[in-house]
């Protein structure tokens, strides 16, 4: 079935972050392509919603809370639920889905892993280049 997708924009320490999703889950998080903010806009250390705050579905509310904690109170992240994901790429049975779910479930927050290490975790030690391609398509 078709999702009724909602959008919100947050002002954060890294600039505007666009999030989108539906009642079922988060579809996408878009980071700014440039570090420059529009003229007259200022970065917000508190990660505040500046557009789309009305009628946000629960997954977007959870994402906003998670991002706010990430920037302002990282110690509280373990207490927050990770929003459900509902991007079509994460619904298909594919290597990309396997890599992204492995990253979410098996790599600890703040930990760095190489594409080779992620390929090993995802069950195909020779797929480092495919992991790179999967990460390039990562909607979140």
TrEMBL record:
<keyword id="KW-0489">Methyltransferase</keyword>
<protein>
    <recommendedName>
        <fullName>Methylated-DNA--protein-cysteine methyltransferase</fullName>
    </recommendedName>
</protein>
<dbReference type="Pfam" id="PF02870">
    <property type="entry name" value="Methyltransf_1N"/>
</dbReference>
<feature type="domain" description="Methylated-DNA-[protein]-cysteine S-methyltransferase DNA binding">
    <location>
        <begin position="97"/>
        <end position="140"/>
    </location>
</feature>
<dbReference type="GO" id="GO:0032259">
    <property type="term" value="P:methylation"/>
</dbReference>
<dbReference type="InterPro" id="IPR008332">
    <property type="entry name" value="MethylG_MeTrfase_N"/>
</dbReference>
<dbReference type="InterPro" id="IPR036217">
    <property type="entry name" value="MethylDNA_cys_MeTrfase_DNAb"/>
</dbReference>
<dbReference type="GO" id="GO:0003908">
    <property type="term" value="F:methylated-DNA-[protein]-cysteine S-methyltransferase activity"/>
</dbReference>
<dbReference type="InterPro" id="IPR036388">
    <property type="entry name" value="WH-like_DNA-bd_sf"/>
</dbReference>
<feature type="domain" description="Methylguanine DNA methyltransferase ribonuclease-like">
    <location>
        <begin position="8"/>
        <end position="83"/>
    </location>
</feature>
<dbReference type="InterPro" id="IPR036631">
    <property type="entry name" value="MGMT_N_sf"/>
</dbReference>
<dbReference type="GO" id="GO:0005654">
    <property type="term" value="C:nucleoplasm"/>
</dbReference>
<keyword id="KW-0808">Transferase</keyword>
<dbReference type="InterPro" id="IPR014048">
    <property type="entry name" value="MethylDNA_cys_MeTrfase_DNA-bd"/>
</dbReference>
<keyword id="KW-0227">DNA damage</keyword>
<comment type="similarity">
    <text>Belongs to the MGMT family.</text>
</comment>
<dbReference type="GO" id="GO:0006281">
    <property type="term" value="P:DNA repair"/>
</dbReference>
<dbReference type="Pfam" id="PF01035">
    <property type="entry name" value="DNA_binding_1"/>
</dbReference>
